[in-house]
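Lab notebook, page 48
Experiment: co-folding of the full assembly
Goal: obtain a model of how the components sit together before planning crosslinking
Operator: M.T.
Materials (sequences as entered):
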Amino acid sequence: MTAPDFAISLVYIAYALAVLLTFGAILTWVERKQAAIMSDRIGANRAYVRIPFTQVKLIWLGLFHGMADGLKLLLKEDFKPLAYDKLAYALGPWLAIVPVLLVFAVVPFGGTLDPGRLFPSLAEWFGGRTYPMQIAPIDAGILIVFAFSGITIIGAMLAGWSSANKFSLLGALRAGSQLISYELVMGLTVLGIVLIFGTVNLGTIVERQSGTVLGFLPAWGIVYQPFAAVLFLIAGIAENKRIPFDLPEAESELISGYFTEYSAMKQGVFMLSEFIEIAVIGALFVTLFFGGYNLPWMNDTGFVFPGGHAVPLSHGWVVVLQLLTFLGKVFLLCSFQILVRWTLPRFRWDQLLRFAWKFLLPLAIANLVVTAVALWAQQA
Amino acid sequence: MTTPRKPHVRRQYWNEPTMGWWERSYLLEVARGLAITGGVFLRNMGKWMTGRKGALTAYYPEEIRADYAAGNRGKHILTQRPDGRPQCVACNMCATVCPAQVIEIDAAFDPDDPAHPKYPSRFEIDYSRCVFCGFCVEACPEDAIRMVKETPDLPGFDRDRMWLGKEELLNWQPHADVAKPYPVRTVAEPGRSPDA
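Observation: model returned without errors.
Model output:
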């Protein structure tokens, strides 16, 4: 790895971390406000930041409530239960949040970057090399995603087991069985996409979604695999353990499930990982089904509309547009997940498992079989 | 001899849930629910975006609800004579009738107004104890104390700060009043005394 490669990697990592943590912070506000607006309320709007030495109070639609929450969590007492497994208790929150952040490493958040063209003064240093906007452009893309999201199960189960609390343990058991069930559904739905695009490399999958179908429809995954898209989103929300699948932390039955015994910022880390996972699931969904950073009829040089009308764009504009497109799509998906969370009531435990094994899994298998047969018929 | 008891059959007082294929398919009904909540969200968001209010709730202390009942007993006001002095003659009837004993009046002598030589130099109501019964309004012989239907700015963090005095109670600027012609004619209007 040469110096320019290293610099570019550092920039990508900084960008990804900034995006994810910002999403985690902003989504707490979005969740509050969207829930309020959906239910004809105004929402949290009291926290403010006063500019020092003036009476100017910045409220900004309650944006500072998240900041106040974070401060509160940081300053609270870190209460620990009397009998607990110290190592596993400390590892729990980290195993919940780190894999969620790592998943984003293989998600392409933009097209190809040519730093020499963006900054002509550095062109010599970069030597005309181009970089896909993706921290780890490796072939194993989707496999990495499943490997890491499998680790979050361990985080939840460790947290529940180590806190020496029966509610936590019950929550952990529920988390384990729920995540394993829905992971299976998720994997089978993604297989359809893998069959269609013929690769598990997320960068290549997004590139193959840049064209059009039938001349006008964008060639996004959701056009080829609408059923898989719905199933993937359901399984994703279940993976995230949010309502209507929040059985592991069902507060009416289990207080707050596997993180009952966590307090202060350790509990905050669980909350933050939940909100970041909303963004990560949105990013995965966008990558697999919504064409990633592609806008309809756009390629690396500009727009080409179905009528043959072309609008060329400079490389800088294309890069900015792709980054913004990806963020905008991810934000829309996050908003949709919040809409689901504030609309549906919680499942009962037996309903949850029945839904996964008797409804989603057969549908996913059927989807896979139909896709495979259709592809085989096309090739034959 | 005992007759064999019939086994108890619990009466069924509920209806079995009837679900058609539409409800049983679940996902379709979920989509309908999402459409409803999403529609409400878009409608309210559109209102906020175009500068209207997209919520049914009120910003509590800042915003006064418009739907208080006309006869609601809210915050007290002291009515004024046309020259701005209080109509109150410090007779202490409201303070006497008050069941919560929250009204405190200090009477004083005003040599400038021979028609009303007695006036309240201090008139205070303790809103931390007031029960809003309205007896003070009924007891007043001079129509000097009334109640508006709203309760603006009542809540506070400190019960010692919940005493409201003449300054707060007197600054009432009614625009229309059927009981008394407020705002009244100027004092200098010929042929009529201010109290007529």
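Interpretation: The first helix of chain A runs from residue 3 to 38.
Next step: discuss with group before ordering constructs.
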